Amino acid sequence: MINIALPKGRLGEKAYRIFEQAGYECPSIHEENRKLIFENPEKGVRYFWVKPSDVVIYVERGAADIGIAGKDIILEYEPDIYELADLGIGKCRMAVACKKEFCDTRDRTLRVATKFPHIARGYYNRISREIDIIKLNGSIELAPILGLSDVIVDIVETGKTLLENDLEPRETIVDISARLVANKVSYKFKNKEISAMCQALRAAQANK
Question: What is the pTM of this model?
Answer without folding.
Answer: 0.93
